[in-house]
Amino acid sequence: MKKIVTILGARPQFIKASVVSYEIAGIPSLCEVVVHTGQHFDENMSDIFFSELGMKPPDYFLDIHGGTHGVMTGRMLIEIERILLIEKPDLVLVYGDTNSTLAGALTAAKLHIPVAHIEAGLRSFNMKMPEEINRILTDRISKWLFCPNFVSSEHLRREGFDEAKIIPVGDVMFDVALHFGSRVSEQGGALNKFGLLPKKYILTTIHRAENTDNHKRLLVIVDALSEISKSIPVVWPIHPRTRAILDQLGLMDRVGKSLMLINPVGYLDMVQLEKYAALVATDSGGVQKEAFFYRVPCVTLRDETEWVELVESGWNLLAPPLNCKEIVDAILFCLVSRGKEISPYGNGKAAKLIVDKLNGDLYK
Ligand code: UDP
User: Does residue 338 carry a pLDDT above 90?
Assistant: First the structure.
């Protein structure tokens, strides 16, 4: 029996892991030990995903959150090392680009445990983003680089990675979306709860440090969304960090009365909100892609995006939040626009390809 230790900590990682853990559980020669760092810990940022997506509870919960990047990552390194020394896995599996990703990869690499990185090769080319630093370093010390799209494999080739390490498999988020997207209808759920009509509202999410920690940008976003919400309902499941900053800055009063700030929702409610939105406005990587999975136009409130094929095909418009009127205009423009048909994220079998490859290589 070969043992995989999976390191998780943030909302999108729970979602991605759900399909991969399911595939691992289906292979008798593999076992998985899940370590949850605690980076996201609230019921609606963490637990709900384990129950909704049918995942077994984590084997270890480290309860590490808050503090500076150094404090958080440092504490994770200490605790993950302790666990890896006990568990002695054959492989460590990490996802995406959070501090939990980097801490898991770095600890394993130093102990000479091979690392598999799911969602490898993404680049924003903006080294101010903590995510960019985390993903570049994680790629560098991983043995298996599972790429979600063509662009990410090309980045790794250009950076000189050994071809054998670059494994294009498609996007596990697409696997999850195919599985759950078809189960969600416009009946009940969040639409009913918040009185929203299909295709008659905008869904927004904001959590990137470049927007929340830059108060001018955050103000532009709040003002633009408040303005738009006068003509079409805007629903905003707000990330706890973003809410805390709005509170701290006393910006809550500035949020227009018609802008619906709600607590973060579970995955099934989120899928419904995405699928039936007229438009999505977001700075989230995952939400940009999910908008496309449901063929909903998206305005991305950032300076750049990793998912460039969505911009090139016309599904996604990049709108840096620098000026309120420009954001309002971008949203109004995209409300009536559609992109070209493309299918860059595989065939919905990424998780199976990943686990088959790992199983094969571990028994070579
Ligand atoms: N998500 C969710 N509930 C919410 C907001 C987001 O389930 O209230 C899901 C969303 O569907 C996507 C993932 O969380 O699958 C995206 O996570 P996030 O935006 O936090 O991170 P990113 O994708 O930017 O790394």
Answer: yes
Domain boundaries, the chain: 2-171+346-362, 189-335
CATH topology of domain 2-171+346-362: Rossmann fold (3.40.50)
CATH topology of domain 189-335: Rossmann fold (3.40.50)
What separation in Å is there between the alpha carbon of 287 and the centre of ligand 1? 6
Residues 6+ apart with CB under 8 A from 117: 94, 95, 101, 105, 138, 139, 142, 144, 145, 146
CB-based pocket (< 6 A), ligand 1: 11-12, 15, 205, 207, 237, 264-265, 267, 270, 284-287, 290
From the CA of 274, give the closest atom in ligand 1: 11
209-228 pLDDT tens trace:
999 999 999 999 999 999 99
Give catalytic residues, as residue numbers: 207
H helices within the chain, ranges in order? 11-25, 48-52, 69-87, 99-110, 130-140, 150-158, 172-181, 189-193, 209-212, 215-228, 240-248, 267-275, 285-293, 308-312, 324-335, 350-362
